[in-house]
Recover the amino acids of this structure.
């Protein structure tokens, strides 16, 4: 197929903004060698912890045509999420995305709407798939190539006006669009606020994360029981950790409000470790239905709460 004209691209970007995405950009599908090299180095050093899927999904991450044969364009989008949560040292803290509807479902639904718009606009069959987080896609690398943001020192994508408190998504398309240009410059300049704010030293250098020391990894990704060393690092966090994001000036000064879908759910924002330990299976499902915490499950949430309580008692 021939490369599509600029008006198609402009109308698709406008539709993305109307759907509530705060940024949308186009990149030509192809190898992301630099990003793969960084990921491979992380795996080789064991800094990915027990996230085995990062290693097993390398082929798909390296070659998006493994997911969509004939892919020509990666359309990257960002949507503004809730502001980073404060750390409550006395009772237990949850990352802000735990208290809102599951972003996987929200972002994928909007991407599918955008895909249908593209199909109607182009007026011919379009093969495309929507990807959100769990798919083996190099989200930050594609977002950078598409010009919607730059990765900061805390390894998170920083979107102008929205900061790093965003959720990313992609449409893989068999349509050929003129690619956008990456954003120039370093969004962090000389700032080291995120590195200074990390209580466990998980950010071992600018743009380099050791997941084994990351509170978000420990409280969300780690499936087994904590070792004493693991538990000592989790602090007061019941689910996730927002310290590096809360310290970032781009998040403190952001001008883009959260998407209306991400309204905090009553009963979650003030949850404590004590309340978690008293949850039953039915009360857990009722409280967290439709949130990312459902993926964690009650057993691991109580594991996290026990760790918080041990620090409170000591």
């Amino acid at each position: 197929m021939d490369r599509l004209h600029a008006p198609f691209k402009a109308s698709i970007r406008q539709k993305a903004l109307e759907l509530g995405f705060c940024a949308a950009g186009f990149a030509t599908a192809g190898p992301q060698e630099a990003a793969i090299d960084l990921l491979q180095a992380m795996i080789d050093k064991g800094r990915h912890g027990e996230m085995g899927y990062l290693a097993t999904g390398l082929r798909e991450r390296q070659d998006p045509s493994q997911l969509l044969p004939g892919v020509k364009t990666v359309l990257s989008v960002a949507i503004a999420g809730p502001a980073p949560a404060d750390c409550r040292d006395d009772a237990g803290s949850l990352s802000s995305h735990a208290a809102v509807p599951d972003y996987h479902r929200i972002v994928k639904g909007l991407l599918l709407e955008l895909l249908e718009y593209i199909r109607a606009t182009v007026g011919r069959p379009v093969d495309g798939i929507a990807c959100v987080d769990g798919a083996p896609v190099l989200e930050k690398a594609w977002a950078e190539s598409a010009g919607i943001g730059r990765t900061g020192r805390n390894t998170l994508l920083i979107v102008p006006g929205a900061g790093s408190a965003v959720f990313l998504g992609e449409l893989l398309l068999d349509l050929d669009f003129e690619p956008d240009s990456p954003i120039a410059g370093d969004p962090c300049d000389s700032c080291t606020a995120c590195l200074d704010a990390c209580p466990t030293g998980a950010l071992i250098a600018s743009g380099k994360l050791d997941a084994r020391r990351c509170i978000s990894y420990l409280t969300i990704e780690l499936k087994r029981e904590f070792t004493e060393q693991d538990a000592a690092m989790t602090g007061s966090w019941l689910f996730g950790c927002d310290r590096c994001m809360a310290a970032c000036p781009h998040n403190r000064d952001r001008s883009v409000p959260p998407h209306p879908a991400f309204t905090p759910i009553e009963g979650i924002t003030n949850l404590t470790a004590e309340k978690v330990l008293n949850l039953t299976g039915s009360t857990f499902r009722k409280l967290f239905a439709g949130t990312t915490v459902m993926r964690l499950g009650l057993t691991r949430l109580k594991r996290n709460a026990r760790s918080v309580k041990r620090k409170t008692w000591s």
